[in-house]
Specification:
It is a single chain. The longest helix is centred in the first third of the chain and has 31 residues. This protein has two domains: 52 residues; 230 residues, Na, k-atpase alpha subunit (Immunoglobulin-like, Sandwich), CATH 2.60.40. By secondary structure, it is of the alpha+beta class. The N and C termini lie far apart (89 Å). It has five helices and 16 strands.
């Protein structure tokens, strides 16, 4: 409240209690002020902030509009070697250990105890069910002679993995567990298939023999990203009695490239291991193509896991 003038001097405002001072701050009837400001002062402040935030909103909207003009909805701006993912796909495996052991790659169970191995059976079934439940839009039946036409993708038949099926407990009730492998998706990546004359020296002999056999019997079915699973150490090699691949020993080339077409699902390979019981076995699986490099530390082109059956 303005001080009262007495002659040439100003008298201080009268003293008020806390409650009276607060009420006067909320509404001063003598000066028509609310919270220390008049109506016109509040109107000017409100108008300023409306204009300020409207301009700020318009500025950021214009920035995002320009930014989104540089992007495409169905494909990344930067692809292959120009992107963060690069052009060297990784390999993954299923089933994974429980979330409590998120860093673990150990598949360990007792084949004689159903309540012990059923986790792995159910986890594998959950993984395969995700393939069955995905929309079938744009999916067609493919073969080496009939790759998918433009705008279509190849389906995956879960029944093709027999005997790695739920009815067979995926082999977990025996010392013959099924491990499923899949290649990570990279937009527009196409495999460069090995031909018989240029097989790499470090490729396992068993895989080389398989490719040569395919070449002689079914030469039109060798356009495959081949897969091999081997024990990492001599003892591990000895403890793996056998391994069988379903439906084939790799990923057919007609599943590539990944173009983000609705309905696309990555191909998978089931590997059924027959192993010695009671020992820990270190296994490394690799994908083989001329443009896949193997780097265990960066998890490129291969995957490591341990297998132990009691």
């Amino acid at each position: 409240m303005a001080d009262k003038k007495i002659g040439e001097y100003y008298a201080p405002p009268p003293k008020m209690g806390k409650w009276e001072g607060f009420k006067k701050f909320i509404w001063n009837s003598e000066t028509s002020q609310c919270l220390g400001r008049t109506g016109s002062s509040w109107a000017k402040i409100l108008l300023f902030y409306i204009i300020f935030y409207a301009a700020l909103t318009g500025f950021f909207a214009a920035i995002f509009a320009v930014f989104y003009q540089t992007l495409e909805v169905d494909k990344p701006k930067w692809m292959l070697d120009n992107g963060l993912i690069g052009s060297n796909p990784g390999l993954g495996f299923r089933p994974m250990p429980p979330e409590a052991n998120v860093e673990s790659t150990l598949v360990w169970y007792e084949s004689s105890k159903k309540d012990n191995y059923m986790y792995w059976v159910e986890e594998t079934e959950r993984f395969l069910k995700s393939y069955d439940e995905l929309p079938k839009k744009n999916q067609v039946n493919c073969s080496f002679e009939h790759p998918p036409p433009e705008g279509k993708v190849c389906g995956v038949e879960v029944s093709s993995f027999a005997p790695c099926t739920f009815d067979n407990n995926f082999g977990y009730h025996l010392a013959r567990p099924c491990i499923f492998l899949k290649l990570n998706k990279i937009y527009n990546w196409e495999p460069q298939i090995y031909d018989l004359a240029n097989l790499p020296k470090d490729m396992p002999e068993g895989l080389k023999h398989h490719i040569k056999e395919k070449q002689s019997l079914r030469p039109n079915e060798t356009a495959v990203v081949w897969v091999s699973c081997e024990g990492e150490n001599p003892a591990d090699v000895e403890n793996i009695k056998s391994r069988d691949y379903y439906p084939r020993m790799g990923f057919p080339s007609f599943y590539f490239p990944f173009k983000n077409i609705e309905g696309y699902i990555p191909p998978i390979v089931a590997v059924q291991f027959t192993v010695e019981t009671g020992v820990l076995i270190n296994i490394e699986c690799k994908a083989w193509a001329r443009n896949i490099k193997h780097d265990r530390s960066d998890r490129r082109g291969s995957v490591h896991f341990e297998l132990m059956v009691d």
